[in-house]
Amino acid sequence: MEYLGDPDRPTGPLAELVWLRKIIVERALTRGDYILSGGARSDYYIDKFALFADPNVLRRIARLFTPIVAETQPDLIAGTELGGVVIATAVSQMSGIPMIAVRKTPKSYGAFANDFVEGPYHAGQRVLLLEDVVTNARSLLKAKDDLEALGLHVTTCAVVSRGLAPVRALIQFSLPRGNAPLEN
User: Fold this and answer.
1) Using one digit for the tens of pLDDT, what is the confidence trace for 28-86?
2) Most buried pick, 28, 30, 62, 149, via CB within 10 A?
3) Has this prediction a pTM greater than 0.70?
4) Residue 58 and residue 56: Cα distance in Å, rounded?
């Protein structure tokens, strides 16, 4: 395993973004013919769970959100189902800010059937809504609209934007089509 540095001692932001791109290429990138969640075709896929499974990598990614948390000063960290919840949990743990999870569709069972938000919140709170990888950000923007309909003030951010998504992301990641060599 590559040494990733001390997770409790951050390095500079540019160095961290270089690291993030490198770790994506090394651990989470596959080439092939894929259909993405939004229906678009791509010749590469980013398997974010190959990154999130390593607690050191997840912690380091979560730490990259520190400036965004400081800037937005949210009352809650939110994550979209499923990968965004993983990131939101890690950011919540590191920041001490409570979190909520946002479902793609309301659940149809239990004490809170028809709810699409898991966890306590109240109107007027500021929410930092996190997602893992976005191409067009349709599901992230729908989640934002759903939360705003509940009276929450939402700022969105993703770990990776691989398209022209109108959301802020830690890193813009795109590759040339075909088998062009990857730079680390």
Assistant:
1) 999 999 988 878 888 999 999 999 999 999 999 999 999 999 999 999 999 999 999 99
2) 62
3) yes
4) 6
How many other C-beta atoms can be found within 10 angstroms of the C-beta atom of residue 176? 10
Are the beta carbons of 76 and 118 closer than 8 angstroms? no
List domains and CATH numbers for the chain.
58-172 (3.40.50.2020)
Sorted by sequence, the CB contacts under 8 Å of residue 15 that are 6+ apart come out as: none
- CA–CA dist 134, 130 (Å, integer): 10
Say how far apart CA 154 and CA 147 lie, in whole Å.
Answer: 7
Determine the Cα–Cα distance for residues 86 and 100; give it in Å rounded to an integer: 11
* Strands (E) located in the chain: 29-35, 41-46, 76-80, 99-102, 117-118, 126-134, 153-161, 168-172
Residue 135 phi/psi, 5° resolution? Answer: -105, -60
The answer to whether the CB of 130 falls within 8 A of the CB of 79 is yes
Short-list 73, 123, 122, 120, CA closest to 101: 120
Q: How far apart are the first and last CA of the chain?
A: 17
Residues of the chain by 3-state class (helix, strand, coil), percent to 5: 35, 25, 40
Between 180 and 38, name the one with better pLDDT.
38
